[in-house]
Amino acid sequence: MKVLIVGSGGREHAIAWSVAKSEKVDKIYCAPGNAGIAEYAACVDIAAMEFEKLAAFAKEENIDLTIVGMDDPLVGGIVDVFEREGLRIFGPRKNAAILEGSKAFSKDLMKKYNIPTAGYENFTDADAAMAYLEKAKFPIVLKADGLALGKGVLICNTLEEAKDGVRSIMMDKQFGTAGNCMVIEEFMTGREVSVLSFVDGKTVKTMTSAQDHKRAKDGDKGLNTGGMGTFSPSPFYTKEVEAFCEKHIFQPTVDAMRAEGREFKGIIFFGLMLTEDGPKVLEYNARFGDPEAQVVLPRMKTDIIDVVEACIDGTLDEVNLEFEDNAAVCVVLASDGYPVKYEKGYPIEGLEKFKDQDGYYCFHAGTKFQDGKIVTNGGRVLGITAKGADLKEARKNAYAATEWVQFANKYKRNDIGKAIDEA
Ligand code: AMP
Ligand code: GLY
What we know:
- This protein is of the alpha+beta class.
- The chain has four domains: 93 residues, 3-Layer(aba) Sandwich (Rossmann fold), CATH 3.40.50.20; 68 residues, ATP-grasp fold, A domain (Dna Ligase, domain 1); 123 residues, D-amino Acid Aminotransferase, Chain A, domain 1 (2-Layer Sandwich); 96 residues, Glycinamide Ribonucleotide Synthetase, Chain A, domain 4 (Alpha-Beta Complex).
- Strand 13 and strand 14 form a beta hairpin.
- Adenosine monophosphate binds next to strand 8, strand 9 and strand 17.
């Protein structure tokens, strides 16, 4: 079969690698793709938000299945456009992708269906938000309602900071229309865990757990980024925690979406915090995590095409979703200065070392071809993933492999997976 992948980051590279392993697949296309994805897929110069062009391409090339990696096209309704054209596509429709696309929607859903999450209020009026803050407890968390590249969350320690936050989100529109509405929620503490799951509208099957590192600098300092590294599984996601989440979070979320007439098919990424009062939902995403996919997919034993097709067909209950009994760590190699200001266009050396190295992967996030060479083309450049028998071994292997590649302004965190030592 012919598969089209929509996106251009490390997550889409991991998806392409996973799809390429399937014996059912003859040809892979990726729009727009990157220099690493080009190893498995023919990259097509159509942007992820050009739905009509993508659908026309899929028709012309007789694409059997399209897999969407990114949030913006899903929230924008790419699945509805493809379905209208009679094309097979994996992901939630627009009315279900709102689970990620509107934080106010997802908070109201959790409240209505008693799914554990931080206490909150939604606001569409800046004055009302300011008045609420006068009586609030600090720290407090402000969230722009819409998509904001993972940056629309502000943790404020004082009333002054929070008021500045309301001003920048709702009045100065720092995150654009994403800030037309805002959630103000209770600050929680605890370990964070990412649990990704496949969903077919009724059945939910979770993948192995992972943990991201969102801040730019060691010790969880610096600005929030798209994610600087991950490990999988999370030692804090115990059997007891899993059992609680299955009963109170995972299935209830899928059932709630169905009850609302917003049947969800695709990936639900549960961003969880393990608080003293039990696991609570921090956020939902409607897609694979990036860089969670880079540690979860290399450990997946089940053919990704089988699972994805079962989600579309509503037969996920018949799939045996299996993961390897090992561990993986991904360390992101970024351009120094990310996520604010960084230079691009530097040649990358040493990529060939990953060829035929079992258990080591170099997923491209921001790269492109220039004059026959692969050069840096983004804030996050590469995700270096390695497997190991356990988390410590995987971490050692991943950090060793970060030395195999060189480029000017290479930057990484040195403490990815530090939490493993506290487990
Ligand atoms: P989100 O995009 O909602 O996952 O938020 C980004 C990050 O902000 C999360 O990964 C948490 O580290 C932090 N965060 C979000 N909501 C809260 C909360 N209610 N309490 C504490 N930290 C939070
Ligand atoms: N790594 C977090 C995300 O993909 O949203």
